[in-house]
Specification:
Belongs to the PPR family. P subfamily. The protein has 25 helices and no strands. The chain has 492 residues and is mainly α. The N and C termini lie far apart (67 Å).
């Protein structure tokens, strides 16, 4: 168990002291919403790699912990994966569209309740979710107060329907709509109603509420309330503090993590490996590298050895700090300890090194993967491709793109986005447009990031007619119509 103390000084202490912490705002007001607007919150997310940071943050979460903590993708086609029957999905979407269109007609002289009743649509949790998501999606582009009112009308109407009862997730969606509309009093009334009706408050409830509390005092009061409430469903953790600490890390309330940890100790609870992993992550993001070393020491003295998630966090630190030699030592030590590095471990390291621009080191560790019988997945390939694109080496990116297909890994929307961006940077606009068609033909639906990337580059190159055609095609397919205003010069 003394390994952690030795590890702190031997591998991390000296290399890490020369690190420079670069803070990156992962959480903003939009993080409380089911939208791909998060993709625009940072440069990394604009490149399509916000999911790498999310993987790193989530890598040490338990698999069955409140799946609703995850931010929904704005890509509606993702939802089809949730249903075993394509027909059910299509029917749900069709019914949701009808109800949504009825709500949009609300106004003087139009009885929206009667119109909803006359639709004769049988309400289910899936239909309600789709309608509320549609409202949440447009709220930044239309009158927010009107959107909040329509959402509440639909929420009340659907609650009166036979054989239907709202779920906790439905309450959460309504809360997020009120947050987006800045109707905070209404949001708190929804919280009160939810608890009065016996629904448990979950990590997702806490996540939404903490994003609304901008003052430190209010945040601490909220934490204290959740720790002591009997309705807080903090399972599968042994106590509520770990659940809250994980939520705070997910919404980047790193300073509050420190305070909650001290409250946890004062309350007589002992930290476990998960607690230390969260604390190490938070301290690193605050730039307090000395505290990272201290926590590693405390971890060992408490009788805990690093788990695979601890190692992943440390590889993240070493990669972003450009410490390839220290990372190599760590990987070797993992094997000595019986922890075999996975694709995620290598991907985390390669991602950090590629951000630094050291593509030689990235290629070295990529080759190390295959030498050690670790199969690169689509995320790993995409990270490396993006690194080559950022370095201006389209040829190597294209070669790797071809290799991944031969290797049986299908490119995802982020892979295509990187390649399209690289082709545009090389002024190969015809090939970029062909790649857009290729991804559609292969069943990979472009997200707004892909369209925005290609259209913006075409316009900057003076290819206005080509950009217009892509926008027109996007609209005809019903994709991201609510966001067309972002292309200011577009004319139908």
């Amino acid at each position: 168990m003394n390994f952690v103390a030795r590890f702190g000084s031997r591998v991390l202490l000296r290399p890490l002291c020369c690190f420079r912490f670069v803070s990156r705002a992962f959480c903003n007001h939009s993080s409380c919403r089911d939208s791909d607007d998060n993709s625009s919150s940072s440069s990394s997310c604009r490149d399509g790699f916000g999911h790498i940071e999310r993987l790193i943050r989530e890598s040490f979460q338990l698999s069955d912990f409140d799946r609703t903590m995850e931010v929904d993708n704005d890509d509606e086609n993702k939802n089809s994966c949730d249903f075993s029957s394509k027909k059910l999905f299509e029917t749900t979407c069709r019914n949701a569209d009808r109800l949504f269109n009825i709500l949009r007609q609300d106004g003087p002289g139009f009885n929206v309740k009667s119109a909803l009743d006359e639709s004769n649509i049988r309400i289910s949790g899936l239909v309600v979710r789709q309608v509320l998501l549609k409202i949440l999606k447009i709220i930044d582009y239309e009158n927010r107060t009107v959107c909040a009112r329509l959402a509440y009308k639909f929420f009340v109407w659907s609650s009166d329907q036979e054989f239907y009862r709202h779920t906790v997730n439905t309450y959460h969606l309504l809360m997020k709509i009120f947050v987006a509309a800045e109707e905070f009093k209404a949001m708190w009334r929804v919280v009160d109603e939810m608890t009065e009706k016996g629904y448990p408050t979950t990590a997702r409830t806490f996540n939404i509420l903490i994003c609304c509390c901008r003052e430190v005092g209010l945040q601490r009061t909220l934490v204290e309330k959740f720790v002591r409430t009997k309705t807080f469903n903090y399972r599968p953790f042994k106590h509520s503090y770990n659940a809250i600490l994980l939520c705070l890390l997910n919404v980047n309330q790193h300073r509050l993590v420190e305070w909650v940890y001290q409250q946890m100790l004062s309350d007589g609870h002992s930290p476990d490996v998960l607690t230390f992993n969260i604390l190490i992550c938070a301290q690193y993001r605050l730039g307090k590298l000395d505290n990272v070393h201290r926590l590693l020491d405390e971890m060992g003295k408490s009788g805990f050895s690093p788990d695979c998630h601890t190692y992943n966090i440390l590889l993240h630190i070493l990669g972003k700090g450009h410490r390839p030699l220290a990372a190599l030592h760590l990987l070797n030590h993992m094997r000595e300890e019986g922890v075999h590095p996975s694709s995620l471990h290598f991907t985390t390291l390669i991602d950090g090194l590629s951000r630094y621009g050291d593509m030689d080191a990235c290629k070295y560790f990529f080759d190390e993967m295959t030498k050690n019988d670790v199969k690169p997945d689509v995320v790993c390939y995409t990270v490396l491709i993006n690194g080559y694109i950022a370095a201006g080496d389209l040829e190597k990116a294209q070669r790797l793109f071809d290799d991944m297909i031969v290797d049986g890994q299908l490119p995802n929307v982020f892979t295509y986005n990187s390649m399209i961006r690289g082709l545009c940077m090389a002024e190969k606009f015809d090939e970029a447009c062909c790649m857009l068609k290729e991804m559609e033909n292969k069943g990979c639906t472009p997200n707004f990031l892909v369209y925005s990337n290609l259209i913006s580059n075409l316009r900057m190159a003076g290819k206005l007619s080509e950009a217009h055609e892509i926008m027109k095609d996007m609209i005809e397919k019903g994709q991201y119509v609510h966001r067309i205003s972002r292309f200011k010069t577009y004319r139908k």
